[in-house]
Amino acid sequence: MPQLTWLITGCTSGLGETFARAILERGDKVIATTRGDVSRISSLAEAGAKTYSLDVTAPKAEIEEVVKKIYEEHGIDVLVNNAGYIEAGLCEEADLESYQTQFETNFFGVVKVTQAVLPYFRKKQDGTIIFVGSSGGIGGEPGAGPYCATKFALEGWYDCLKQETAHLNIKSVIFELGFFRTKIMDPNNIKFRSNPIADYDPIRNAVVQFVGQMNGKQPGDPKKAINIMIDVVKGEGVAEGKALPERLPLGSDCLATLRKKRVNDLAICNEWEDVIRSTNHDE
Fold this sequence. Notes:
Blueprint: E1 5-8, H1 14-25, E2 29-34, H2 42-47, E3 50-53, H3 60-74, E4 78-81, E5 87-88, H4 96-106, H5 108-124, E6 128-134, H6 145-165, E7 171-177, E8 191-192, H7 201-214, H8 222-234, E9 247-250, H9 252-277
Parallel strand pairs: 1-2, 1-4, 2-3, 4-6, 5-8, 6-7, 7-9
Helix pairs in contact: 1-8, 3-5, 4-6
């Protein structure tokens, strides 16, 4: 396969940084971005990546200017919408700001960057867009209301975009990740802004305990997941000879969540089918 140029958002650490290094090791070109000063990702520049400052929460016009500069200087073949973080909080306790801030990065940031890249993909009738989804976009989890809301929104927007751009030879795939051992659950990264309500004390305490126990002990290996994601885009390795999937869960925990959700959905459809169909007009 010819050498590809990958634009990746959120490369300061975690999946983004790992993604950039894995792509470079495969011989492709990387455009690594971060919010603020590019010195934050200087190690990626030393490894061979081109680095740019790109804040996904910036006004759309600013994002478009950065993307234009990147495309004119390097071109773009693959967009990896990776930037994101977790706003934790129980649904009633989390303040509105938590929801708004979470959506600005995890959802609206993805929309703005994707919209900035799409004109170039449409013009050349080619390109691939990667969306980093989550098991939290398949089934909600206690204490993750703001985060899960953004990932569910992303799933719906992705489905629409994929159908609307298919005739333009623009490919897209969403990878739904379970718990992978990155720094996303580190106390310095996870946000837990909450207005405690006594009735929820047991659930909140259990969530805090779970996060503490899970941090640094997540079952998933991010390097393995990212190599699979690259294989899928390039049609190599584990993806050789296979069609590009619409969505691909990664991680045994995510697979369990997906199966449980779909089995439950199917059971409801089977039990309530007559009632569901009864809502049509008689004629």
